[in-house]
Amino acid sequence: MQIELGTQARAGFVVSEDDTAVALGTGEVPVLATSRALAWCESATLQALRPAIPEGSTSVAMRVQIDHIKAASAGCEMTAIATLERIEGRRYVFVVSLLDGEGEISASGRIVRVLVETDDFLAKACGAP
Fold this sequence. Notes:
By secondary structure, the chain is an alpha+beta fold. The protein has a single domain (8-123), classed as Roll (Thiol Ester Dehydrase, Chain A). The protein is built from 3 helices and 5 strands; from the N terminus they run βααββββα. The protein has helices at 21-24, 34-49, 118-123; strands at 8-14, 57-68, 77-88, 91-100, 105-117. Strand 4 and strand 5 (105-117) form a beta hairpin. The radius of gyration is 16 Å and the shape is globular.
């Protein structure tokens, strides 16, 4: 698998009422839920890594660290950015950030994805036949 350090992916989103902490049951204010901010950042890491993943394999998030530092209301445009920082064997460490429509950081952190063989991974999942 070939991928270069510094590989980057961006994914755009617009905060909807369904993305708020109230809607997701994780808070009591109608702003972007941290869990959704994390999901968007994770999506960018997958997008960055996907072209380099061999057939029969996939990558899964195994570690996340995210600081959600600025609120965003419904209608706010957001951009998730993932940059490959380092490779540790089968682990791919990404620096992630979520920018609001004004280019200010709403969330930032690191996400580690690990390369797995899809069939083996699914066979070990809870509830697998």
